[in-house]
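This section describes the prediction task in plain terms. A model, or a person checking by hand, is given the sequence of a single protein chain and must write out its three-dimensional structure as a string of tokens. No templates, partner chains or ligands are provided. The sample shown here is typical of the held-out split.
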Amino acid sequence: SSLKTDTLIVDSASLVRLQTSSLSPAEITTLSAYISSDFEKKRHSCLDQVPPIDQMARGEFDDHVVRISRFSKRLRFYDKQIGKGEVGGFRKGIGRILSLWVKNAHYPKASLTVEIYTCVQKTNKVTDVIYSRILDNLVRRLASDYKVPVTLYFKEDAPSLTHDRFLQTDSVPIYFSKGFDYMDEDGTLHRCAMKIDNGAYGHLQEYRN
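The expected answer:
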């Protein structure tokens, strides 16, 4: 992976030992100075102050995806619109995230898994044609391209739970306002809010049930 340690957080005694040794991390942050440190400002910005993805600096979106996913063995994608069966844009959007995750994951590829949750409204039926289209053109293509198992879950949207779109790692849910059809063929990003939403755990559990 190309990621480096952002900072090494140490107590005062450890700081003295590091300063008198040959070890030289890129940046050291003491516990006493953590709250006002550049690292904490950057961490807080990542949580609360991320601009829409089309307004991010070059490479910033990919960097955020790597940071939120690399220590996760499983990614879950929740997007109601996939259930309509037109999956080309979703394959590109989800594929970009999977490509970054697989390349930078802390864990061996053999331990990685993907789940995709979508739905059909209660008044409609999932036709064999739509289901097969999603399996062939999205699920199996992603599994083949990135060499990770991908499981599709088709839910019924009885209480209209599934409007909001999320990416969920092992540690955090990330809200994607536009969902995963978020970029053009050339990689240009659309207007889409991307926010960590720690309050969504219960909602996503209900989605899966």
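For orientation: The helical segments are 12-19, 38-48, 60-69, 88-104, 128-146, 201-208.
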